[in-house]
Amino acid sequence: MSASPLSAARDVAGLRAAVNGWRKAGLSVGLVPTMGALHEGHLSLVRTAKARCDRVVASLFVNPRQFAPHEDFERYPRDEAGDSTLLASAGCDLLFAPERTVMYPEGFSTNVIVTSVSTPLEGEMRPHFFGGVATVVTKLLLQCLPDAAFFGEKDYQQLLVIKRLAHDLDMPIEIVGCPTVREHDGLAMSSRNAYLNADERRVAGRLNLVLHEAIKAVRGGAAIVDAEAEASRHLSAAGFTSIDYVAIRDAETLERLDELRDPARVLAAAWLGKTRLIDNMEV
Ligand code: PAF
Fold first, then answer.
1. Of 118, 156, 116, which is closest to residue 135 (Cα–Cα)?
2. Are 17 and 113 part of one and the same domain?
3. Are 163 and 224 in a shared domain?
4. Where among 128, 144, 178 does a domain terminate?
5. Final residue of a structural domain among 122, 144, 178
6. Residue 93: which residues within 8 A CB-CB, separation 6 or more?
7. How many other C-beta atoms are found inside a 10 Å radius of the C-beta of residue 274?
8. CB-CB contact of 146 with 115 (8 Å)
9. pLDDT tens, position by position, for the chain (283 residues)?
10. Ligand 1 center to residue 44 CA distance, Å?
11. Is 42 a residue of the active site?
C-alpha cells in the first residue's frame, strides 16, 4: 500500500482481491489504463468510466515495451503522488501501479501482435509501438477483468488496435473510445506537451487547425492526396520541423481512400524539435 490519497494495488493479487470484492457485491468495474503524467484528458476518461461503472480502477505503468531504445522512456514524466491525487478527485476508486517485474517477470516471453490496423501510419513510423501496447493492454485487461475499459480517441490508431485485439481474443470487455480533450487553442492534451518550450507550444496549436482545413478541403471536393500534401506544407510553413504523415483514411480500417467516403478520419504526426505530436479528427 502507498501513502497516496488513493488506495493502491502493486500486484495482480491485490488488484484481483479488490475487483472480486466489488463483483461479489454486484458492482460493475471500469478500467482506465494510463502511463501517468495525468492531464484533463485522462481525468475525463475516469469521469466517463465512473458514469458508466460502479467502481473505477486506473492503472499507472510506463510500459518500456512500447518505447524504442532512442525514444523518451527515461525522461517520460513520472509523478505518482500527483497522479494519485488527481485520480481521487475524479472519482477513481483504486490505483493499480505495478513494478516492471510484476508486468514482465524474469522469463516473460509473450508478445501480442495485432496485424491489419497496426500496420500503417504509426506502425510504419514506430514499428515497435503497437506490439508493446497490445501486449501490456492485454495483460492489464486480463489482470483486472473489467466490464469496460476506456481509451482516448487522441491515440486513434491505438484505440482501433485495442478494439481489434479485444474482439479477436473474445474478451468479454467493452472497449470504449472517448473524445479528445483539447487546450484553449485546440491542441490535443498529451503528457508529451510538457516537453514543448514556449515557442514550440505556440506552433503546436496550429496542428489541429491544419487538420480542420484539410477536412474542409476534402469536404469541398479537393482530392485526398492534394489535401494531405497541402496540410503537410502548412505544417512545415507553421514551423513544424518534420512531418511523419498527414493521412485521410477509412476510419475503421485505416486503409487508403481513392475518394472520400464515410466514415473517414484525418490523422497526423509531426515533430517540433524533439517532441512528436499526433492528432486526428473525424472527416
Ligand atoms: O495510451 C497510453 O497511455 C498507453 O499507450 C497505454 C494504453 C496506457 C498502454 O501503455
1. 118
2. yes
3. no
4. 178
5. 178
6. 6, 18, 55, 56, 57
7. 12
8. no
9. 444 579 999 999 999 999 999 999 999 999 999 999 999 999 999 999 999 999 999 999 999 999 999 999 999 999 999 999 999 999 999 999 999 999 999 999 999 999 999 999 999 999 999 999 999 999 999 999 999 999 999 999 999 999 999 999 999 999 999 999 999 999 999 999 999 999 999 999 999 999 999 999 999 999 999 999 999 999 999 999 999 999 999 999 999 999 999 999 999 999 999 999 999 999 9
10. 15
11. yes
- What pTM was estimated for this model as a whole? 0.96
Residue 36 Cα to ligand 1 middle (Å) = 9
| Residues near 161 by beta carbon (within 8 Å), at least 6 away in sequence | 114, 117, 118, 130, 133, 134
Q: Which of 155, 161, 173 to mutate to test the pocket of ligand 1 (most atoms within 8 A of CB)?
A: 155
What is the number of the ligand 1 atom nearest to the C-alpha of 59? Answer: 8
Please give the Cα distance from 22 to 37 (Å, whole number). Answer: 27
Helix then strand count (H, E) for the chain reads: 10, 9
Whose CA is closest to atom 2 on ligand 1? 34
**Which is catalytic among the residues 42, 70, 184, 234?**
42
In this structure, which residue's CA is closest to atom 9 in ligand 1?
Answer: 133
* Structural domain contains residue 150: yes
The contacts of residue 241 (CB under 8 Å, 6+ apart) are 271, 272, 273
Which residue's alpha carbon is nearest to atom 5 within ligand 1?
133
Q: Can you tell me the distance from the alpha carbon of 4 to that of 8, in angstroms, rounded to the nearest whole number?
A: 8
**Ligand 1 centroid – CA 54 distance (Å):** 23
